[in-house]
Amino acid sequence: MTHQTLKGRVREDFIARYSSILYKSAGNKTEVAGTIRQILEGILSQPRGVLKEQDRENIINELVDEFAGFGPIEKLMMDQEVTEIMINGTHNVYVEKHGKKLKTDIKFDSDQQLMYVIQKILAPTRRRVDETQPYTDVCLPDGSRVNIIIPPLALDGPTITIRKFLKVIQRAEDLISLDTLDKRMADFLVACIRGKVNMIFAGATGSGKTTTVGVLSSYIENDERTIVIEDTAELHLAQDHVVRLETKTPNIEGKGEISIRDLFKNSLRMRPQRIILGEIRSAEALDMLQAMCSGHSGALSVIHASSPQEVMHRIETMILMSGIPISLEAIHRQISASLNLIIQQDQLADGSRKITRITQINGLKNGWSNLEDIFYYEINDVVEHGKVSGRFRATGIQPVFYPLLAKRGVMLPREIFDKD
Q1: Which of 101, 102, 170, 235 has a CA-to-CA distance to 321 between 20 and 30 Å?
Q2: Where along the chain do its domains lie?
């Protein structure tokens, strides 16, 4: 009997007889793994005579990883250098390390084993995947984000994308050491958080926007009532007075959906001192701008866009598509009256993540929002192996809201804005 056949039989026997242990969420992983190992050793005791000790140990280790962890990808989940795991069916598992995507030699035994890992990921959540809802997003207890999509939508088998949460990035100093920004930019952004400046973080998928928001939000005062609204709960703030809200997908009959916009409207009745919006996608853009205008300062939000100018276009489109009768000029008046800063983050050719522009909205110019870069990243050269060489620079423009920072007791030397 082959290793895989025996392993499959033991797996089926274990699931049939001891499935209750698989959902023992109260105990920690070490306890669950110990119990599973004991049971598996008992199941494997009969073929001991024909099974080599090393093969027996390999089967036990693989199944302990599968039942107490995430199966074949358990070691990838533990690897601090792996930032993303991409599973394209049973035989194609890719990782991102140091900004580069690499194919691994890891394989799943079958679609059934891969679906078991999916069910294990979904078990503690309110989400599901099946024929009526073949894709979903969830967040693991450690903060890692997971997207799952299954056949018939995924033609090559169940597909999982895991963006790991890196505990090593917690403070502005960590972003500086990673060369995501320089100290001047970090001091400025921390001052903007403390001074309750309204900010939008922009960038493509995987550029590090959510990580940066998570780091900067740690500088919100502990006693401020903060409402966090997300499609999938990703931000974990350390402060005491935090209320986390998550959207709700429709039920099997297509009813009961609660959108970001629904939660945002409700949050305004919850006496928030801060609102953090996971991602702007539609008409909530106008709600957010109106809330900023009406005194809800210090709001943070995320948007998918490739440049500050693209942020403007996306907000325009979202508001116009909502069906609300409003002119472009009125939209830009609303933006310039409410939004202070756009922080643009990009992943460069060498895989590094940089804040490439910090841009202020300084009133209107010819009826359009007037965008001015305060800091930017200048690429000097792309050297051997695609390594990007460049530096962070100040334009010499000072933020128009600088007096607001001083008024709110945030001291920031004007010299940091001096042109390089």
Answers
A1: 235
A2: 1-69, 70-166, 172-417
pTM of the entire structure?
0.80
Per DSSP, what are the bridge partners of residue 388?
382
What CA–CA distance (Å, rounded) separates 269 from 198?
19
> From CA 95, how far away is CA 73, in angstroms rounded?
10
Place of tokens 């009133």: 363
Where do we find the tokens 């035989």? 91
Residue 123's SS3 state is coil
Residue 21 has pLDDT above 80, yes or no: no
Domain made up of 172-417: CATH architecture: 3-Layer(aba) Sandwich (3.40)
Q: Give CA–CA dist 308/389, Å, rounded.
A: 23
Sheet holding 82-88, edge to edge: 100-103, 93-97, 82-88, 159-163, 145-149, 135-139
Residue in this structure with the two tokens 């276009």, named with its chain if needed: 313
Backbone φ, ψ for residue 277 (5° rounding) = -105, 115
| Tokens found for residue 152 | 């018939």
pLDDT digits over 356-399, tens only? 999 999 999 998 999 999 999 999 887 777 788 899 999 999 99
Cα–Cα separations (whole angstroms), residue 34 to 54, 57, 62, 209, 338: 19, 14, 13, 39, 56
Element (H, E) at 350: none
Write the pLDDT tens digit of every residue in 197-232.
999 999 998 898 989 999 999 999 998 999 999 888
CATH number, domain 70-166? 3.30.450.370
């025996």: which residue's tokens? Answer: 6
34 membership: H or E segment, kind and range: helix 29-43
Q: What is the pLDDT of residue 47?
A: 55
Residues listed for the chain: 420
DSSP letter assigned to residue 156: T
Which one, of 67, 60, 66, 28, lies nearest residue 41 by Cα? Answer: 60
Cα dihedral 181/357/300/224 (nearest 10): 40
189-220 in b/e form (b: 16+ CB < 10 A) is: bbbbbbbbbbbbbbbeebbbbbbbbbbbbeeb
